[in-house]
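[step 3/7] fold_predict: job queued, chain A
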Amino acid sequence: MRILFGGSFDLLHTGHVRAMRKAKRLDDYLIVLAVSDEEASHKKGKQRPIIPQEERVEMLNALRIVDEVYAEKGLHNMRKVLQAVEPDVLVLNTDARKEDVELCAEMGVMVRFIDRQIPSSGLDTSKIIKRILERYDSRDIS
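[step 4/7] structure written:
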C-alpha cells in the first residue's frame, strides 16, 4: 500500500520523524508530501517557511524511513495531490480539515489519523523559532 503523509517540515525535528514512523507502520511504502513555500506561508504565517521547499525536500529524501517525496507546487489542492500521488491511505493529524476527510471518502482513499507528535522537549518548529529569537540578538549570530 502507498501511504501519504504531508506537512511543511520546516526545521525538521523529532516530532516530524515520530509522525513519519507512525505513518510508515501502516505499510511499507511511505510517500511524504512537502507543501509549497506558499502553502507553508499561508498556514504558518508570512515569515515561514524558514527553509525553502527544495531544501526541505532534499532533507526528507535523505531519511531512510521515506520512500518517496512529492513536492507540491503552488497553493495546496488536496484533490490534485491525491490524483497525482494515488495513495491507498492518507495519514492525517487528528485536527485535520473535515473537507480533506470527505474528499478522501469521495476518491476512495482510506484515512488514518495520528495524534500530532510533539518532541519530548516540547519544541515544535514555532517554539524552536521563538527560542532562537529570545536567546540570540542578531548581532550575536555570525
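[step 5/7] annotate
The chain has one domain: 2-140.
The domain at 2-140 is CATH 3.40.50.620 (Rossmann fold).
exit 0
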